[in-house]
Design a protein that fits this description.
The protein has 332 residues and is mostly helical. 69% of the residues lie in helices and 2% in strands.
């Protein structure tokens, strides 16, 4: 019988198999209820409906955070809240790109919910894989934290000085969307007409993809790019698999309703990218300081309470300043 290496097998986590099972059971039950009951038919999501669902998902997440506090203590609850806050803030950055993608592909408003729901399902699977791989790397190759920290520093500084994190913003379709669209048109049979909320349809006796499926591919690609930033940022707060996974899933589930809530006002948050740049820079620095630099610099551990205050202050401050100061008109 082959046993895994000790460093990989003993990943510290507060989540027991029962706790994991109950969380996943409740999570998928909510997904089924959302898709099968409340949003079974395609429709234009109103601002009022988006606000209601955003409050529902945020309340459920904070309720789960209260359970973490009751079951595992204040430290784990603060770690969950910090990770959730970072992921939510970075999810708002996702919305910038999604708005550009949907406008570029001219997706009818009543079909947006279908694309976002399918995209989030794919994102949940991909992020689960990313989290698993990242945690295995951290436990088996401890110095990989230096790589994650340096990457977050680079991304944060790039966001501060260029307004782009690895190229996911900007461009006609954002996030390399044009490249994804070209590759899809090269290898798939694609029709230019929509067929309701369907991703595939029949044309001349052949199954072809609709523009909705191409848009889904673009959304998934953009989310992979964002996950490369957000998941290492959460590792800077905690490496507990249960806290990392649950905080990420809770934040991603609220992304769909938040999109409809913010899609028409997202341009007003023009300073948020600088707040996110400072957050990524702070978390990257925290990660490196926590490892130390041998004899040059001893390990410096920043308490999670301080991290939560810094992250909340940077994100809240950038949003407040965005609302107080209007963006400069773009020069053409």
């Amino acid at each position: 019988m082959i046993t895994p290496p000790e460093s990989v097998a003993l990943v510290p986590s507060v989540g027991s198999p029962l706790t994991w099972g109950l969380f996943l059971l409740g999570f998928f039950a909510l997904l089924a209820l959302d898709l099968g009951v409340f949003n079974r038919k395609p429709h234009r999501v109103t601002m009022r409906e988006a606000l209601r669902w955003t409050l529902v998902w945020v309340s459920l997440s904070l309720g789960f955070n209260a359970y973490v506090y009751y079951a595992f203590g204040e430290q784990k609850a603060l770690e969950f809240l910090s990770a959730y806050l970072i992921e939510e803030a970075l999810s708002v950055d996702n919305i910038f790109v999604f708005v550009v993608l949907f406008r570029y592909m001219k997706i009818p408003a009543e079909y947006l919910h279908r694309v976002l729901f399918a995209g989030i399902l794919g994102a949940l699977i991909l992020r689960g894989v990313f989290i698993g791989v990242g945690l295995v790397l951290i436990e088996s190759i401890r110095w990989s934290l230096y790589i994650f920290g340096a990457f977050l520093l680079f991304t944060g500084v790039r966001l501060l000085f260029t307004g782009e994190a690895g190229g996911e913003e900007g461009g006609e379709a954002g996030g390399g969307g044009n490249w994804v669209k070209r590759q899809a048109e090269k290898y798939l049979r694609i029709t230019k007409e929509f067929d309701g909320p369907r991703f595939f349809t029949m044309k001349d006796g052949k199954r072809v993809a609709t523009p909705l499926f191409v848009t889904l591919l673009m959304v998934e690609t953009a989310d992979v790019v964002f996950a490369v930033d957000s998941i290492p940022a959460i590792f800077g707060i905690t490496t507990d698999p249960f806290i990392v996974f649950t905080s990420n899933m809770c934040a991603v589930m609220g992304l769909r309703s938040m999109f409809f809530l913010l899609e028409n006002v997202i341009d007003r948050f023009h300073l948020l990218k600088y707040g996110l740049g400072l957050v990524l820079t702070f978390v990257g620095t925290k990660m490196i300081l926590g490892m130390g630099l041998g004899s040059w610099l001893p390990e410096i551990h920043i308490p999670v309470e301080i991290s939560l205050l810094v992250v909340a202050g940077l994100i809240g401050g950038s949003i407040l300043l965005s609302l107080l100061f209007s963006p400069r008109p773009k020069r053409h």
